[in-house]
Amino acid sequence: MSWFGDIGETVGGWFGSSGGNILGGLASTALTGLALSLISKSINNSQSAPATATAVDTGVVVNIPPDTDQKIPVLYGSHHFAGIITEAVMSTDNKTMTYVITLCERTGNLLSTGAASQFTFYDIYWNNNRITFNSDGVTAHYTQDAAGNIDRNIDGLVKVWCFAGGSIKDYNQVPTDYTQGTQVNAWDLVPNWTNAHTMTNLVFAVVQVTYNKTNGTTGLGNMLFHITNSMTQPGDCLYDYMTNTRYGAGIAAGDIQL
To answer: pLDDT, tens digit, for every residue of 5-21?
Structure first.
């Protein structure tokens, strides 16, 4: 579904108009009704019904068809995302599973400055415990719970690559507090992917889990990603959602009075 993340502390700077309020220029026209109608329709159409839980025998292989009702969220400001698993591929030696977790859409340029919106990865969690990575910012070293207890079971067995906008290496980044090393293309990490798997305008992660029954890494843990978008001003956010033709209301910019 479409998701407006926490806008943050900034509440000013609607569109830089003299009135300081975008709705001031629209209230006297029918465009207000059109804008709200289109935005409401866009949001309502993106709602999906909750999935129905099904008991699965863990001792057998189960093929599950794709869920075509899944929607990719839109993030403004800061939020924590669990994401949507959009790919899962086993290695040829049957020891490592690679997952692609799609997190949110990449938004457009900021109306207030013209700059491209920038996405930043902060903390990443495994089963509700924060992951501390090795110096490469990719390989998990240990997890730590809220009480400070450290668990090293995932040490070296879980790797996480973050991408903020697409599969090419230019979008590959490490979480804050880590130094960016050699950037990689997502298609070089996921078995059977090619450079045709572009993931254009998507913020996502590639997670590799090496099977180890002793350590309990027999599948993907419950993951959570803390991400921020530099688009935080209310006017920037509203204008982006109103005009975007991919995830927004698709209103022509010329139909909006600034």
So the answer is: 444 433 333 333 333 44
